[in-house]
Specification:
Strand content: 15-25%
Structural class: alpha/beta
Strand order of the largest sheet: 1-13-12-11-14-10
Helix content: 10-25%
Number of helices: 12
Shape: globular
Distance between the termini: 43 Å
């Protein structure tokens, strides 16, 4: 029986350029890439050099923290370019695709044999084939530890607000793979939850029947971290796993077919885009294949609240399923004070946009300068896990790690709402994410 959960806090942002219920097929790209420097926590060690021929699904780089965790090539061809950033950070590994792709092959598992498969055998297969990083572990949102035994595994079908591709389009024809994926996850934990925001739309019957919890409310309804915060009963449950629906399909098809599955559907939206809709492409697709160059705008991988800016000449990140296109927002607003923000999206009720029920125009401008915290508590009012972000931030800046943990640092789901509503323009999200990562680094050595 499906349960219903309501997000009490959170925020619904009514912006123009919502993702349309349409699906187009992108032209086959000439190149694809993985961007190791943009994957949280990972310390990459390259396994290829420029000029190497590589198969789709073959190891591209490994994680220095645990070299058995590898990330696969998103395509078959030749390693055309390896780009380094500050401090020799590996920014891009670009592969020029062959006309006919070759695949790294592994021994598949029959769908009928999944229910009796040995979990350690499945774990080893996922590691060798590069599908293990598709799984992520809370609270740090890193790939799971090799000995991890999750209390829960959460499958999310999307976030409120359309920041992932709609499953009604992304999972077309993938019902069998989705159910096989759930069977695989049950070999690692008997407690598998399939969650979806209430606005998820029409789904194929096998998938809709698998949903265990419908989540009502604004963003971040559907976030696995928020769901775990609501259902957990003891601290041992904190280290649960989660996976997005398209990644679950890719994981299942790898197990049952024995080769890496690069297909991805991206949701493209934002009020700077000329066409808003879903695009069928592949993992590591060029940003330009989803957003043709021309207009002056910024590309955000994922949510406008917590996503990362992508270079227009770059590629989609390993976990991205959405692309938000926003105006730069650095234009002069002559006599803007006379309009009192009628078209400006804001959580504050001091703007006239509180009376504007139409779609609002979001941009990347800060509309002000950073100032000290004024203890207004707006961040606490929207925080979906009630951690008092302003006090947690002050504790981390003062080096009081234990007090920050007591305030709920590890409960932070990194949704970015605190930074969005802050009238002092404090980058609370960056501060809390950095503090979490630093705590983990010091704890694990």
């Amino acid at each position: 029986m499906m349960k219903t959960l309501t997000v009490k806090n959170g925020f619904s942002l009514n912006i123009s350029g919502q993702v349309a219920e349409s699906l187009t097929v992108a032209p086959a790209p000439a190149t694809v890439a993985l961007m190791p420097g943009w994957i949280p926590h990972v310390k990459p060690r390259l396994l290829v050099t420029e000029g190497d021929a590589i198969k789709c699904g073959a190891p591209l780089f490994e994680d220095k923290r645990n070299p058995v965790v590898i990330y696969p090539s998103p395509g078959a061809g030749v390693v055309e370019r390896i780009t380094f950033g500050p401090r020799r950070r590996i920014d891009e590994v670009v592969i020029r695709l062959d006309d006919e792709e070759c695949w790294e092959r592994f021994e598949p598992v029959s769908p009928h044999a999944i229910a009796s498969a040995d979990p350690d055998t499945l774990r080893l297969m996922l590691l060798k084939g590069g599908a293990w990083p598709l799984l992520r572990e809370l609270p740090f949102r890193d790939h799971p530890g090799l000995s991890s035994r999750p209390a829960h595994i959460i499958v999310t079908l999307g976030w409120a607000g359309g920041y992932l591709a709609r499953p009604s389009l992304a999972l077309q024809g993938e019902e069998a793979a989705f159910l096989n994926g759930l069977a695989i996850l049950r070999r690692f934990s008997p407690s598998v939850h399939v969650i979806a925001p209430s606005d998820v739309g029409d789904l194929p019957e096998p998938i809709s029947q698998a949903i265990t919890t419908s989540i009502r409310g604004g963003y971040p309804a559907g976030d696995p971290g928020h769901y775990l915060y609501c259902i957990r009963k003891e601290a041992s449950e904190n280290r649960s796993w989660y996976i997005e629906a398209q990644d679950l399909v890719a994981l299942a098809r790898f197990v049952t077919e024995g080769c890496f599955y690069p297909k991805r559907v991206y949701a493209v939206g934002g009020n700077a885009s000329t066409v808003c809709g879903h695009v069928l492409s592949r993992l590591g697709a060029p940003v330009s294949s989803l957003d043709p160059p021309g207009a002056r705008r910024r590309q955000v991988g994922g949510s406008p609240f917590s996503g990362l800016f992508l270079p227009a000449t770059g590629y989609m990140n390993f976990f991205d399923k959405g692309l938000t296109l926003l105006p730069v927002g650095d234009e002069e607003d002559l006599f803007g004070f006379l309009r009192a923000g009628y078209n400006r999206p804001s959580q504050s009720r001091t703007f006239l946009s509180v009376f504007n029920k139409g779609p609002l125009e979001l941009d990347c401008g800060m509309h002000g300068e950073a100032r000290p915290c004024i203890n207004c508590s707006r961040c606490a009012h929207v925080c979906p896990v009630a951690i008092l972000p302003q006090y947690t931030m002050k504790c981390t800046e003062a080096g009081e790690v234990e007090e920050a943990l007591a305030h709920g640092l590890l409960d932070c789901i990194e949704c970015g709402l605190c930074a969005y509503v802050c009238p002092s323009k404090i980058e609370l999200l960056d501060t809390l994410k950095t503090a979490k990562a630093q705590y983990r680094k010091e704890r694990d050595g």
